[in-house]
Task: structure prediction
Amino acid sequence: MARVARSDIDAAGLQSRGLRMGIGAVLLLIAVAAEHGFGSLDISTFYFLAVLAIIYVPPWEDVPVVGRYARATIAIVIAFTYPFFWDKLFTVPIFGEFPSVSTGVVMLVFIMMAVGLNIVVGYAGLLDLGYVAFYAIGAYVAAWFASVQFPHANVHFGAVGVAHNLPGFHISIWLLLIAAGFLTAGVGVIIGLPTLRLRGDYLAIVTLGFGEILPQIARNSDNFFGTGFNLTNGPNGITPIDSPGFFGVNYLTGSGTFWTSERLFYWTGLLLLLFTIFCSVRLRDSRLGRAWIAIREDETAAAAMGVPLMRTKTWAYASGAFFGGIAGAYYASFKSATFPGDFFFNISVFILCMVILGGMGNIWGVIFGGAFLAYLDQEGLADSGAWMHTHLHILSGDTVPKYEFGIFGVILLVTMLFRPEGLIPSTRRAAEFHEGGEFAEEYLYDVQHEGN
Amino acid sequence: MVSEASQQPLAARTGYRPSVTGIVGLSLVLLLVAWLGVNFYKTPSDFIQIFLIGFTVGALYALIALGYTLVYGILELINFAHGDVFMLGSMMAVTVVGTSLFNLHQGQAWYVLWPLVIVALLICMAFCGGLNVTVELIAYRRLRHAPRLAPLITAIGASFILQNVGLAWKGPNYVQTASVLPTGTVFSTHGVEYTWEKLIVLIVTTPVLLLLVWLVQRTRQGKAMRAVAQDKDAAAMMGINVNRTISFTFLIAGALAGVAGLLYALYAGSVRFDQGFQLGLIAFTAAVFGGIGNLPGAVLGAVLIGLIQAFNEGLTWHAPGSDWTQSIVFGLLILILVFRPEGLLGERTPEGG
Result:
């Protein structure tokens, strides 16, 4: 098990050193061409490809002791230094510039949610179509306790850069992140307990139902069940929401030219994401994580082996929800607003699409899927649409973003049809999708079904 | 993966239910009846009027719900894209009815109106049927033997694609259709008015439903459908072309969605690209309510859901109102799935009949 987990990064099947060398050679060739001022290519192309080659080509996993962490370390260093060099990078054909730092914050938040959903969908194999509900709860926790939504209260605790006479709750965002995580996990358990005994597709529908009900409650609760109590401010949403801060530096204003608002949000988001990834990997390799994978592969066999189904599934739900809640609270604080309109079914599918495109169950795949789709959502589609408009003279500039969810639908469909294990699959998951072939699953299932 | 092996507790299988659930359920039903009773007592004519509206809408939902239930019965797949097939059907209806060739307008003589409406109906049925078969061919056929979540995910993908086709076709706003159906009253008594358009929805729906029952229960093709629903491999051994039968089922389901699309376009008067998701989920709830895979169950569930929606939106005494319709429908769906996953009409039979 642990061995499989460690070699996940190479699971795409590009394990052979020869192939890797070949790819590295091609990368270097392009890089050299770039360095010689080939056409309009930039010198930064050279650095970019060189770094890719350094991450990818050397057989890092064979290096004793430090080899395991080499790739991750390089990736983390690059991610942390990204705000310093993103605007100096070359222009990608069609897509244009590299994502800005504030887009990076959104990408980090969505990657966090994707990693959280991956615990439910990828590890435990439970399809959750209402993940947006957890995001919504997290966002509203931040909105309630760090804004002027409840003007009769005047509670300040640890909030940085908020005037002391400002009415409403103003709790430190750091505490709210934790609170949002735990509250959302609790809601996950409450939703999970009655529903998790349902079969796969019914469970998907029930989660979808919760994902639709909660935003509707948010939309209608400016007059909370007819009591006149304004809980959520209805469709107008709650805004502004306090920003986090420490040592007297508020994230909204930043401090000086180095600690700008964007960078602060970006680095904090990155730390939260690293925390999420760390937890996710440790959970996967734990006893609980192995129980999830056992349930995913064969529920009956897992139960026969003594895995408590309900408890294990509920833990998967709670863990997934926990990170969704934190991400939601952080995102609300970053946007300084939360609206019921942010929590449509579309968003659930958007996050699901990240998990599926990248590769269910594989942390690298999910990070890639999340980063790529969140980037498309924020900048990529608009940029590529504009490019098509000016260079190919087809489509008007806003056409591509308009059909965003159609594009995501195509991604879901094509991925599931031709590469159900995702772009960067986990070895185990890929084996599950391709095992059995013509029989095995069908027959066993039918026998039991008739037995009822 | 056999993880789908039924996880129902022993209680569900033996028909025994813990009494607490029963009491809670019973008291909820009693509360509902009491609420309806008070409303009826306060405003009897409104109540009947709303009942008629609910019944009509329920008949429309039945057509969509049957599509879900037919497909679920044969493939055990929630065809997420079905609602969007219905949406495209209603857009087709708007297009057809709006063409100058048809020149349909209010107050036309019945011998002009009816043949044209029937032609439009056939066009919509053929369009939606073909569309549904195509969706099956592209999105589901390759995944017959894949883990069960795979076709569900492609279904969501197909749903989004179709929704965007609708968006590209008719744009993001409501598209109005000419009101074609006669709006005069059939009868009017004690302040209750029954209008022709409501009756026409029933006049079209009822024969379609009867035809469907006949098709599934009396014809060779229907027999093949039931056989495939029961056991694909045994059916294949008996010489039934399984893939063709499944395609046929999708064709029928799509045709029903086409009927619903036309009726909805004419009855509601406006269509939009995202209506399919909403109504599709309501219809799916109806199918689950009645017992998914069960044809009469789908109709019963749909009529009940239609009534619930109409009462919720129309009644004046302590009704939550249309802001809450969606939550009520989904709440109901969750309650049914949790407490009685086999639906109202008893046992869960995979065959639709």
About this structure: The two ends of chain B are 28 Å apart (CA to CA). The longest helix of chain B spans residues 44-75. Chain B has 13 helices and four strands. The domain at 58-339 of chain B is CATH 1.10.3470 (ABC transporter involved in vitamin B12 uptake, BtuC).
